[in-house]
Amino acid sequence: MNLTVFGIGYVGLVQAAVLAEVGHNVICVDVDAEKVQRLKDGIIPIFEPGLEDLVKENHAAGRLTFTTDAAAAIKHGRIQISAVGTPPGEDGSADLKYVLAVAETIAKEMTEPKIIVSKSTVPVGTCDKLRKRVGEILKMRGLEVLEFDVVSNPEFLKEGSAVADCQRPDRIVIGTQSPVSEQLMRELYEPFNRHHEKIIVMDIRSAEFTKYAANCMLATKISFINEMACLAEHLGADIEEVRKGIGSDPRIGYHFIYPGAGYGGSCFPKDVRALIKTAESVKFDATMLKAVEQRNNTQKSVLFDKAYQYFGGDLRGKRFALWGLAFKPNTDDMREAPSRVLMEALWDAGASVSAYDPEAMAECQNIYGQRDDLLLCGTKEAALRGADALMIVTEWKNFRATSFDMLREALATPVIFDARNLYNPKTVARHGLEYFGIGRQAA
Ligand code: NAD
Description:
alpha/beta; binds nicotinamide-adenine-dinucleotide; Rossmann fold; six-stranded parallel beta sheet; single chain
């Protein structure tokens, strides 16, 4: 099948590469000319396990190409997948300018029937808006008889395992009421639907809402366990024991109940806020979603608060070693990462940071540039040397086992603030270090 994908970001690039891998011919369009040129030169703009090889192989095989020429790309595919960003607008609602721009471009250029597939996370009713806009433009062009459809097909990939998630999706949600569109979408995803039926067809609004409901549920689980963790500290309990105790109930499960410094990334924060705004637009007070967001905002300062208290309310001149900058492991994405809130609070308090992350160093440099109070170090050991404390923010695999003797010797003050509860407090204490996790008693 010939496909056109708009937007070569985390979603568009990964999905395009995976669709090319199964034999579809995919043209990717982006307005970022530099990104397109780099991809043509074999430079992959993001880190995602397995992505580089997949992109290079399919590009070399001629099934995956990159362009800024939207008009030519629109001619290529009957199916036009839109995977552009939907960042938060000033009031927190989803900004649809990129999504609208893509639909308008397609409407202005199309000369044959097209199916516009909305893969971005968009508020309920967006596909209806796109349909209306495309219809208006076709009418202005005198082409109102030209067939088109707008289908909702939200993406559920997880950054850090995006390639694997697209290759083996849990479910493929398709929102359409058109039998023709449904048939074409089934053909598109047939290669991923062999093991068992994963395609769930529903009406468009329900498909759009499914994506928000899924992300808000996951964000709720995280804020719930974070609230329990804060309470556990007051009550003298250990949240790690509690986590195992509740996770063993299959109705609760072990997934997404790890306490931490709050959720970040490009999706949960903006999607929770956007759904709150959507609720407001229909005069519904989404009290639970507001509480989820509030808990998350508070949670992002827990590590700072612990350090502030430990050092007697004065962090001036102190240097903190940060392990982990990405919002989660296996990605270089720092959008809304807890590390950013932490670093900015430390800088405001007069402290400096020496940081290490296996993949997000370049991204951190892009965001903050050169500054005296930020030292980006090549190894986790280098970040530690002479620092006043270690702060663990992201649970990268190679932080899980560490030499506590090395830590004690490298740090000026033998203290760890761990937002990921990676270590056993008793083991750390035995090596002569103080240890503050989340939701546990200090050791
Ligand atoms: P991104 O910011 O990484 O990429 C978006 C890309 O779209 C950029 O390369 C940008 O240059 C391009 N673009 C903007 N306007 C364009 C236009 N008119 N024509 C062509 N390209 C254009 O975004 P992302 O993280 O891939 O997210 C895309 C959408 O998917 C969002 O709605 C997001 O909520 C959703 N989503 C993201 C994830 C995730 O983990 N990142 C997961 C599921 C769903």
